[in-house]
Each structure stands twice: as C-alpha cells, then as structure tokens.
Amino acid sequence: MSEKNDYNILKKNLPKGKDRLERIENMAGLGTPDVNFCSDGVECWIEMKSSTEPKRLTSLLLASNHKLSQVQKNWFLKQRNAGGKCYILIATDKRWMLINGKYADGINKMTVGQLSNIALWQSLRPVKSEVWSQLRKVLQVL
User: Fold this and answer.
1) Count of structural domains within the chain
2) Domain CATH code at residue 107
3) What is the pLDDT along the chain (142 residues), one digit of tens a residue?
4) DSSP letter at 31?
5) Structural domain for 130, as ranges
C-alpha cells in the first residue's frame, strides 16, 4: 500500500472525458495536497493518505507516519476560508473513504469507525467502476 499506487488506481478509474487529475509533486507550497482535480468546471484539492487498517473500528487509523501535519492542517484551513474545496482521501487495505477537509484539524484523532461515519463517499476494496462514478459525482457537487 502506498499513496503512489493508490493515486494510480484513482487516475485509472476517476477521470472521464475532459476531467483533469494531476498529482502535485513539487515543494513550492508546503502543505499543498497531493492531487488537484477538475471536472465540469468544479475544482478541488485532495490529500491522499494510505494506511493499513487496524483490526478494531475503535482504533485510530492514521498512525504516526500517516498523520496530517500541522502545515497540511493550516493549508486546509486557508483553503476552506477562501471558499475552496478540499478533501482527504484515505485508502486502507480494506476500503477507501473521502473525508471533507473541514475535519482536517481532528482527523489524526479519529477512529476507523468515526471516519467511516463522516465519510462523504466510501467503498470496500476492490472498488467497482460504478462506485468510482459516484466518487466523481461527489467531487463535482460538494
């Protein structure tokens, strides 16, 4: 499991037609999320996190090396204050979950169950093609 592999899965399955999905790999802006997506004139930023899911839904998901950093949390706050759209896309060995960026400050202290409850979109692995279409629609609307 790695963010790069999960990005490649996302890139293969999410964009349609004229959509744009780009991995941001520069250090120009600290805290800038991993992915920029634009579809039908709606743009959003996505921070990707890959993690092995703990055995219990009551365990914290983002372990020490997968947490959102303070710089990333600050970026999410600035983006939301500017009216921009931003999300955290968590891929575990068992599921994918899309979390609204408004939860960035507390996401490191959330359990798998809590994250599942607030997810805007989620799917067990492997994700079926029609379920990827649902994610695309969520990103276009919210």
Assistant:
1) 1
2) 3.40.1350.10
3) 688 899 999 999 998 889 999 998 766 578 899 999 999 899 999 999 999 998 888 889 997 668 999 999 999 999 999 999 999 999 999 999 999 999 999 999 999 999 999 999 999 999 998 999 999 999 987 6
4) T
5) 3-141
